[in-house]
């Protein structure tokens, strides 16, 4: 029985809820597991045949389980999978020395994934940005897909910021079609000499995929430093993060970079 429930749980994660509904309805019409072959077409042409075969074998090893019970279990597994997806899934992201014991994904790979996933809107925040050819290539690809791209960076010290390198001007020069934003010193809560900095680092695509990280947009952060982050798929967090960043614009807490400034 445990094997049967494990396979059903996998199917709940693998198949679309509508497909699960179709399969469950078909299974309910069966007299017993001996008629399982009648259900195979209901799984659809793209279903994992090996997984469907495992369901057949596991059910035959639990013959006392009725078709109605299997159908109910499939619907329950699908509902649980939808709930899990809505809550969001989190992956660990790391750059630096590896232990070989804990599976982690690389910072540069994940950041490019977020950029490449964007279909409508992409928002990136970093303290500085330079020497990131792979990220620039990914951003150019997003521009080609007509994605609206907003980037928030720390101003240079010549403009009241906390860095000597002017990432804002450089980014706008490389990608003139994107909107680059800054946090003006006159809108910070402390005097310029004591004011805070844009120290957040994140990227969020379409309010659905969010990468929160310690890594700046630099080659050192992508390749050499110890950097830690999380990739969040779906759920409320990506949406809330994107909305918060957009509100920073609409409430004029941050302002668009002026090429003549």
Task: Give your account of this protein's structure.
- By secondary structure, the chain is an alpha/beta fold.
- The protein is 42% helix and 17% strand.
- The protein contains 9 helices and 10 strands.
- It has helices spanning 2-14, 17-28, 49-60, 67-87, 107-117, 133-144, 167-174, 219-223, 236-250; strands spanning 89-95, 121-126, 129-130, 148-153, 179-182, 202-205, 209-213, 217-218, 227-233, 255-256.
- Strand 4, helix 7 (167-174) and strand 5 (179-182) form a beta-alpha-beta unit.
- Helix 5 packs parallel to helix 6.
Summarize the structure.
With 261 residues, the protein is of the alpha/beta class. The chain is built from 9 helices and 10 strands.
Strand order, sheet with most strands: 1-9-7-6-2-4-5-10
Tell me about the biggest sheet?
8 strands, mixed
The geometry reads as: elongated
Give the integer mean of the pLDDT values.
92
Number of strands: 10
Helix fraction by DSSP (H/I, runs of at least 4): 40-55%
Strand content: 15-25%
Q: Roughly how many Å is the radius of gyration?
A: 25 Å
Oligomer: single chain
List unreliable stretches of 5+ residues: none
Distance between the termini: 69 Å
Strand-and-helix sequence, N→C? HHHHEHEEHEHEEEEHEHE
Tally the helices: 9
- Secondary-structure class: alpha/beta
């Amino acid at each position: 029985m445990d094997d049967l429930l494990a396979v059903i749980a996998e199917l709940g994660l693998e198949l679309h809820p509508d497909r699960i509904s179709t399969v469950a309805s078909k299974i309910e019409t069966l007299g017993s597991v001996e008629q399982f072959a009648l259900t195979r077409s209901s799984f659809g042409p793209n279903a994992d045949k090996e997984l469907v075969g495992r369901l057949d074998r596991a059910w035959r090893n639990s013959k006392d389980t009725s078709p109605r019970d299997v159908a109910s279990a499939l619907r329950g597994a699908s509902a649980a999978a939808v709930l899990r997806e809505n809550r969001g899934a989190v992956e660990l992201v790391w750059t630096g020395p590896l232990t070989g014991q804990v599976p982690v994904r690389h910072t540069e790979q994940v950041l490019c994934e977020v950029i490449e996933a964007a279909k409508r809107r992409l928002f990136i925040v970093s303290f500085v940005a330079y020497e990131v050819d792979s990220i620039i290539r990914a951003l150019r690809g997003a521009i080609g897909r007509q994605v609206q791209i907003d980037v928030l960076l720390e101003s240079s010290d010549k403009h009241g910021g906390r860095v000597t390198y002017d990432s804002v001007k450089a980014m706008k020069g490389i990608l003139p079609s994107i909107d680059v934003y800054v946090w003006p010193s006159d809108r910070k809560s402390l005097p310029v000499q004591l004011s805070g900095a844009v120290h957040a680092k994140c990227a969020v695509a379409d309010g659905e995929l969010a990468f929160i990280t310690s890594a700046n947009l630099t080659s050192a952060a992508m390749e050499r430093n110890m950097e830690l982050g999380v990739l969040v798929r779906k759920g409320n967090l990506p949406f809330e993060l994107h909305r918060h960043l957009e509100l920073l614009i609409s409430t004029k807490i941050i302002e668009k970079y002026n090429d003549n400034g």
